[in-house]
Specification:
The complex is a heterodimer of chains A (393) and B (74). Chain A is 45% helix and 22% strand. Chain A is an alpha/beta fold. Among the domains of chain A are: 96 residues, Nucleic acid-binding proteins (OB fold (Dihydrolipoamide Acetyltransferase, E2P), Beta Barrel); 124 residues, Response regulator (Rossmann fold), CATH 3.40.50.2300; 42 residues, no CATH class. The longest helix of chain B is centred in the middle third of the chain and has 24 residues. The relative contact order of chain B is 0.12. Chain B has one domain. In chain B, α1 packs antiparallel against α2. Chain B is elongated. Classes of the chains: A alpha/beta (393), B mainly alpha (74). The interface between A and B is large, with 43 and 38 residues.
Chain lengths: 393, 74
């Protein structure tokens, strides 16, 4: 047994509390009472639950972060550390975060789960799979009676009516909802779908809670095909959004993400057709050209062509021969004409014209010597115009 | 052509056909046969696009409103 001064006792108590792990980081669920805001800005209040109560301090800097200051009687979740205030010998909660209860508890759970699953790698970006370009079968985990399903079906009907939609109905809120989501997911894993949408329409944060469940997160993580989450509105975030391969802000958006637009598909198809026709037309043209080329080469070497060519050569030779012949004939004519001219120049007929006569024996020999004739010889005398006979005296 | 083949398979096939035709190294008869197949495939694709009506079924037979109910409700 020891004797302690008050200061020693209080110091001991302070250190005792300060070294306790639980008290350093704790959420306390209680009701606000005696709330007062000091002129310094710091807030002092009591957290109550039935007959139990504990004093609480919330510094100005913490209070400044709150959207609204709590009211007396309000159920809250206060986070902070528990410490011993030696001056007054009181145990106090030093609040560093304050949330309305309900949301607060859930929010704290949410943060813890998110942190844990994140650390485990369930949210790793490297795990995210791309969505199939043309899904054949689209699985939908949602309430069979909800507006979300109709939104999804409307989008798919408009954009991508080629698909088959397999609905795995589940409860999307209330007790046991998470279990039905997990069951629905696993049912789809056996249904050979290409992609899965997990959807729920908008609601209060508590209404979306089925999708903040660890089992749901792990079931999504185990999916053999890409999962798109479309839970709540744009501003809502649930654990499943982090685990899913793709996060869509709403159920409709999820449906848009998994579905190609049918008009784009038609355009793609038309383009493929054009390319195909162009390719085969080109191929035919190539084949045609090849045949034409060969046919031309063949034609050049055909016997007919050979004969035709020989005949042509023959014709040519004939033509040249004819030309040559004609030329020689013409030449001969010309030469003949020349000779004829010269002949004419030398002709005795010209001399006869001048009055001379040619005397020939009747036998034909020319008489060029008077001694060649005897009296009574008949001679033939030719003058320019005609011939007559005479008797030598 | 297999009737149970989905649009995605048909479209992928058509893509392969076009690519092979565009390569231009096929014997003519083969190219023409392939072209014929491509035309038929494209026609089937078109038919699927034109005549498609979203098929909806539910895994939980009687537990939820039937597909018919949901269709008419929409």
């Amino acid at each position: 047994m020891q004797l302690l001064s008050v200061a020693q006792l209080n110091l001991y108590l302070r250190e005792l509390l300060d070294t306790d792990d639980l008290l350093r980081d704790v959420w306390v669920d209680g009701e606000i009472s005696n709330f007062s805001r000091h002129s310094s800005g710091h807030c002092y209040f009591t957290l109550k639950e039935g007959d139990a109560q504990i004093g609480a301090v919330m510094w100005k800097s913490v209070a400044a972060r709150l959207a609204t200051l709590p009211l007396n009687g309000e159920a809250v979740l206060a986070h902070g550390r528990v410490a011993f205030y030696e001056v007054r010998g009181q145990v106090q909660l030093y609040v560093d975060a304050l949330r309305p209860a309900g949301i607060g508890v859930l929010q704290a759970q949410f943060e813890r789960l998110k942190e844990r699953l994140g650390a485990e790698g369930l949210f790793d970006l490297s795990r995210k799979r791309p969505l199939p370009a043309l899904p054949r079968r689209i699985g939908v985990v949602t309430s069979p009676t909800g507006a979300a399903l109709q939104d999804i079906l409307n989008v798919l009907r408009r954009r991508y009516p080629l698909a088959e939609v397999v609905i795995a109905p589940c409860q999307v809120q209330g007790t046991g909802a998470s279990d039905t989501v997990v069951e629905a997911l696993y049912a789809l894993y056996d249904a050979a779908v290409d992609v899965i949408i997990v959807a729920r329409g908008g609601g209060a944060a508590e209404d979306l809670w089925a999708f903040n469940d660890e089992r749901v997160a792990r079931a999504v993580f185990a999916s053999p095909v890409p999962v798109v989450s479309g839970v709540g509105h744009e501003t809502d975030t649930t654990i499943i959004d982090f685990v899913a391969d793709v996060r869509a802000p709403t159920p409709s958006a999820a449906a848009e993400l998994v579905s190609p637009d049918v008009t784009e598909l038609a355009d793609d198809l038309a383009l493929l057709r054009t390319r195909m026709t162009a390719a085969v037309t080109q191929r035919l043209a190539d084949a045609h050209d090849a045949v034409t080329w060969l046919a031309d080469r063949l034609e050049l070497r055909s016997p007919e062509n050979r004969i035709r060519r020989d005949r042509q050569q023959l014709d040519e030779l004939l033509r040249r021969a004819t030309v040559m012949l004609d030329r020689r004939i013409a030449l001969a004519h010309a030469r003949l004409d020349g000779e004829r001219g010269r002949l004419h120049a030398l002709s005795p007929l010209a001399t006869l014209g001048r009055g001379y006569a040619v005397v020939r024996h009747v036998a034909g020999a020319l008489v060029t010597d008077a001694a060649d004739v005897a009296p009574d010889d008949r001679v033939e005398i030719t003058v320019r115009q005609g011939t007559f006979y005479a008797r030598v005296e | 052509m297999n009737e149970t083949e989905g649009y995605e398979e048909l479209y992928a096939r058509l893509q392969r056909i076009v690519e092979r035709l565009e390569a231009g190294d096929l014997p003519l008869a083969e190219a023409l046969a392939l072209y014929e197949e491509g035309v038929a495939t494209a026609a089937t694709c078109q038919k699927l696009l034109d005549g498609a009506a979203l098929r909806v079924r539910s895994l939980a037979g009687g537990l939820v409103p039937s597909v018919q109910d949901m269709e008419t409700a929409s």
